[in-house]
Design a protein that fits this description.
Blueprint lengths: L3 H8 L10 H11 L1 E9 L8 H5 L1 E6 L2 E6 L2 E10 L6 E6 L2 E14 L2 E7 L15 E8 L2
Antiparallel strand pairs: 1-2, 1-8, 2-3, 3-4, 4-5, 5-6, 6-7, 7-8
Length: 144
C-alpha cells in the first residue's frame, strides 16, 4: 500500500531533548507548529501515493510531537531537529527509545511549505533532497 511511507515514518519518531543551539531549536520548532496537509510524497520503494491518498493524510505538530493521520489510521510521533547545520537535520525516534535514531533526514521550511527527505533505517543521512529509490520524501503545506 502506498500509505506505508507515512506509516513507517509514524512508527519511528520521538523526543527533542537537550539539543544544539537550544534557542535556534526553539525558534525553528515554532515554524513547525500547527496542522499540515500532505501535497507530495515518495516512499522508499520509489512509488508515490495517489492524490486521493494524499488528500486523506494530515499532520498536526505540537512541540516536538506530531500526530499523523492517514485515512482511519492515527499515529503519534516525536522528532528532534538541528537548524544550525548547513543542511537542517531532523531525526525520528521511537517513543520509548529516544536514544535510538530510527530515521535520519533533512528538511527545509519556506513560507507555508515544509519538505523532508529521509534515508532508510540504518543508512547515512541524505546529503540533499532525493526523489529516488531508497529515500522517502514528504512535502507538506500548512493548512488554513
Amino acid at each position: 500500500m502506498r500509505l506505508l511511507p507515512f506509516l513507517a515514518l509514524a512508527s519511528f519518531t520521538c523526543l527533542a531533548a537537550a539539543q544544539p543551539e537550544d534557542e535556534a531549536v526553539k525558534k525553528e520548532l515554532k515554524r513547525f507548529q500547527g496542522k499540515w496537509e500532505a501535497v507530495a510524497s515518495q516512499g522508499f520503494d520509489g512509488k508515490s501515493p495517489t492524490d486521493v491518498e494524499l488528500s486523506l493524510t494530515s499532520l498536526v505538530i505540537e512541540g516536538n510531537k506530531f500526530t499523523l493521520k492517514t485515512g482511519s489510521i492515527t499515529v503519534d510521533l516525536y522528532f528532534k531537529i538541528d537548524p544550525t547545520k548547513k543542511i537542517k537535520t531532523i531525526d525520528v525516534y521511537g517513543k520509548d527509545a529516544p536514544d535510538k535514531v530510527l530515521l535520519r533526514g533533512i528538511y527545509e521550511i519556506k513560507g507555508d511549505t515544509r519538505k523532508s527527505c529521509f534515508s532508510e533505517a540504518g543508512k547515512a543521512r541524505p546529503d540533499r533532497f532525493r526523489k529516488e529509490k531508497g529515500f522517502m520524501t514528504l512535502e507538506w503545506k500548512r493548512a488554513q
